[in-house]
Amino acid sequence: MKSTLYLKAKVLPGNKIEIETPDLIVGQTVEVVILIPNDTPDSVEKQSLSLEQRIAFLKLPMAERRRILESQTETMITHYQQDLEWKELMSGDIIDY
Asked: Could you write out the three-class secondary structure of the chain?
């Protein structure tokens, strides 16, 4: 059975990605899948909330927080129904070399 290791990495100068983990053995052959998000770094940073914004959200009445979370949930449901790439990735055949 294959084990899966999920890591995030930044692209280094020279368009290189470095993977370092004690789970790997020197000389071992591994399969690497690279998922490139559609979002640009700028749009991801704009979506991140500051600590002050998070605290302000927690201070809202429960009904208001639920309304906001329901709206975000509907957005995510629409996203995952339209973008089926995640299903293709999870349903693919496992190739054992």
From this structure: CCCCCCCCCCCECCCECCCCCCCCCCCCCCCCCCCCCCCCHHHHHHHCCCHHHHHHHHHCCHHHHHHHHHHHHHHHHHHHHHCCHHHHHHHCCCCCC
| Predicted pLDDT at 42 | 55
pLDDT of residue 57: 87
**Angle, CA 21 vertex, CA 1 and CA 90 arms, to 5°:** 40
Which CA distances in Å does 4 have to 1, 23, 24, 62?
A: 10, 11, 12, 38
pTM equals 0.39
CA-to-CA distance for 50 and 3, rounded, in angstroms? 35
- Tens of pLDDT, residue by residue over 60-92, are 889 888 988 998 898 888 877 887 776 777 666
